[in-house]
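Notes from hallway chat w/ T.B., transcribed later so I don't forget. T.B. wanted the structure written out for a chain they're using in a teaching module, and asked if we could keep both sequence and structure tokens in one place. Agreed to drop them here.
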Amino acid sequence: MADWLHADVAAIPIREAVFIKEQKRAETEEWDDGDEHALHVVASFDGNAIGTARLTPDGIIGHMAVLKDFRNQGVGSAMLQKLIEMAKQSRFKLLTVNCPHRIEYLYIKHGFMAQGDKFLQAGEPHIKMVLYLSV
């Protein structure tokens, strides 16, 4: 867990590789001032950063990315679990995420529930998911 000043060196290359290069998102869609106010997690393997995600002060999980060679190995799940623990420690009552429909199963596995209809975000179908936390 880190603030942006400590996470940016590891998180920026991952988000550029996944969102900007691989998913062809515009840079303006990826970078916002939310990073400065969020807590970040960075997953690593053999000393190299392989995944990242953030939790905003209002309980929104976002910008979760895992490098292609490390997907489907539990990295996203481990980061999500860490974000949930951080939220509980901060006494959040609710977590939300706009997740790509293709990885909805990951959030369901951690207790999130779909809310509302699918919508397009960054050119991809997404769904809002929520997790109510007991503190």
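Follow-up for T.B.: The longest strand covers residues 113-121. Might be a good example for the class.
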